[in-house]
Amino acid sequence: MSETQKTAAPGGQTRHRMLTFHILRYNPQDPDSKPHMQSYQLEEAEGMTLFLALSEIREHQDPTLQYDFVCRAGICGSCSMLINGRPGLACRTLTKDLGTEITLAPLPVFELIGDLSVNTGKWMRGMSERLETWVHTKEQELNLDKAEERMDPDLAESIYELDRCVECGSCVAACGTAQMRNDFVGAVGMNKVARFKLDPRDTRTDDDFYELVGDDSGVFGCMSLLGCHDVCPKELPLQTQIAFLRRKMISVGLK
Ligand code: F3S
Ligand code: FES
């Protein structure tokens, strides 16, 4: 880790570090495109994030560079990429926390759109449809005039904690199982199942959840590599949720 280094230039102006970005370039839509690294140099600015750096590069050096951003505040999850080989959110990563040589690459596992842009949305939609990540209620309970039952505040807090997932895909990209099995639901999927299992409004039983994740594409495919837990930018308790779900699913399987 290194702090932003400033030196006084003649005339009293502040000179910042010169950063070199090595970015993996590839456009799968272009038959002539070959994966290669391309380097860009940029003077660091105060409070510079990777989002700001990439915007500078695209605006002043290379308008063809592809990457994704929406919220710039760590909420939409679209800017996740490999930063010096580790998945992370580019909009929440300060250049001052990195060295002067910075390598950026797209997340593995997900379909590549181009350069640093990947289609996490397609993967997340598939996972959500498969795990049915919505509250399942009985039909007769769908009375909109009826006030929702009060939930215990501690339980609501626990559910809210798991709902902080922004589906950035960092946990999937950091997972060895997800790289080997394309049907693996990843820590993001298991976190969602744990979340709906906690929710008293959801009428699904343990057997129903076992149907969803009680096999090698779910909890039994997880090898406890814990890369997911290490890289989650929201610091979700993924290790605890996976262990909780595994214990539950083992007890259902042994019934
Ligand atoms: Fe993958 Fe996390 Fe399990 S990295 S193998 S989902 S503990
Ligand atoms: Fe939304 Fe980074 S741009 S999380």
Structure notes:
The structure is a single chain. The chain has 255 residues and is an alpha+beta fold. It has 2 domains: 3-117, Beta-grasp domain (Ubiquitin-like (UB roll), Roll), CATH 3.10.20.30; 132-253, Orthogonal Bundle (Fumarate Reductase Iron-sulfur Protein, Chain B, domain 2). Helices cover 33% and strands 16% of the residues. It contains 9 helices and 9 strands. The strands form 3 sheets. A 5-stranded mixed sheet has the order 4-3-7-5-6. A hairpin with a 5-residue loop joins strand 1 (6-8) and strand 2. Helix 3 (153-163) packs antiparallel against helix 6. It is elongated, with a radius of gyration of 22 Å. The relative contact order is 0.12. The mean pLDDT is 92. The structure holds FE3-S4 cluster (F3S) and FE2/S2 (inorganic) cluster. FE3-S4 cluster binds next to helix 5, helix 6 and helix 8. FE2/S2 (inorganic) cluster (FES) binds next to loops.
| CATH superfamily placement of the largest domain | Alpha-helical ferredoxin
Proportion of residues in extended strands: 15-25%
**DSSP summary: helix tally:** 9
CATH architecture annotation name of the largest domain: Orthogonal Bundle
DSSP E strands, number: 9
| CATH topology term of the largest domain | Fumarate Reductase Iron-sulfur Protein, Chain B, domain 2
CATH class wording of the largest domain: Mainly Alpha
Describe the largest sheet.
Answer: 5 strands, mixed
Whole-angstrom Rg: 22 Å
State the separation between the terminal residues, measured CA to CA.
51 Å
Average pLDDT metric: 92
Topology order in helix (H) and strand (E) letters: EEEEHEEEEEHHHHHHHH
